[in-house]
Design goal:
- The protein is built from 7 helices and 8 strands.
- It is of the alpha/beta class.
- The strands form 3 sheets. Strands 2-6-7-3 form a 4-stranded mixed beta sheet.
- Helix 2 runs parallel beside helix 4 (about 145-165), helix 4 (about 145-165) packs across helix 5 and helix 5 (about 170-190) runs parallel beside helix 7.
- It has one domain (about 5-245).
């Protein structure tokens, strides 16, 4: 996103990404570097995303651009939520840290190890952690619009914690975070803090279709996030209608 979302070449199928992303995006778990100082992804190894070869190469898929997009997404999210809290007369405290990691167990939340191929918000430590190699692989193959969604979703979990929002079922927490991520991005585009290129909304939609739960997973399961259709609907409801659509009251 200039800050803007850059389209990464022609549209393509995300079927190969679905397995890796389906359970990895958007988890919330009960002295680290910022994204700009993250360890460089291991570009010589196979992508952390299963079943996909190659890159949507248009000259905008470097480590430096990945790190800059993460830093931009964080900066815009902090400004957005600071303004929302200020408008409601509340004090805003940014998420404390953004932690890149490369190995399972390198980062833990409340004594629970965070696995590879994942991104989570840890309420116990007030930080977002992301597998840098997995995230970089998704960045190269899907595009940076999805990086902004990923950061926006995890940041939304931090906002839920700040507001004391806690639902009985995981799926309620996750779909609300999708809605809040959509509101953050839609409002930022409308305020011109972000600019989308042609095709970026389709990129969001395609990415969301890849992160839905298996249709056979019970909605009440502890780690349910919602079907592809539910997650897409929640995100775009927030994108189009802002936070009023996200049941924050």
């Amino acid at each position: 996103m200039t800050t803007r979302v850059r389209r990464r070449g022609p549209g393509g199928s995300l079927v190969g990404l679905a397995i890796a992303l389906m359970v990895a995006v958007g988890c919330m778990a009960g002295g680290a570097p910022d994204p700009a100082n993250a360890p460089a992804p291991e570009q010589s190894r196979r992508s952390a995303t299963a079943g996909v070869e190659g890159t949507r190469a248009d000259g905008t898929d470097t480590v430096e651009e990945f790190q800059q997009d993460l830093a931009d997404a964080r900066s815009v999210a902090e400004r957005y939520w600071a303004a929302q809290f200020r408008a409601s007369g509340q004090r805003f405290q940014p998420v404390r840290r953004i932690i890149p990691y490369q190995r399972s167990g390198e980062v833990a939340c409340g004594g629970q190890e965070i696995p590879r191929n994942n991104a989570v918000y840890c309420a116990a430590g007030d930080y977002i952690a992301y597998d840098v190699n997995w995230s970089f692989g998704a960045f190269r193959q899907i595009g940076d619009a999805f990086v902004f969604y990923l950061l926006g979703h995890e940041y939304a979990h931090g906002i839920q914690t700040r507001l004391g929002i806690h639902y009985t079922f995981t799926i309620q927490q996750e779909l609300q975070a999708d809605c809040m991520a959509g509101a953050f991005l839609g409002d930022s585009v409308r305020s011109k803090a972000l600019r989308l290129d042609d095709g970026d909304l389709a990129e969001f939609r395609e990415g969301l279709l890849a992160v839905g739960d298996d249709p056979n997973q019970p909605w009440f399961a502890e780690d349910s996030h919602g079907t592809a259709q539910q997650r897409t609907a929640a995100f775009f409801r927030g994108y189009e209608q802002s936070l009023d659509a996200c049941d924050l009251t």
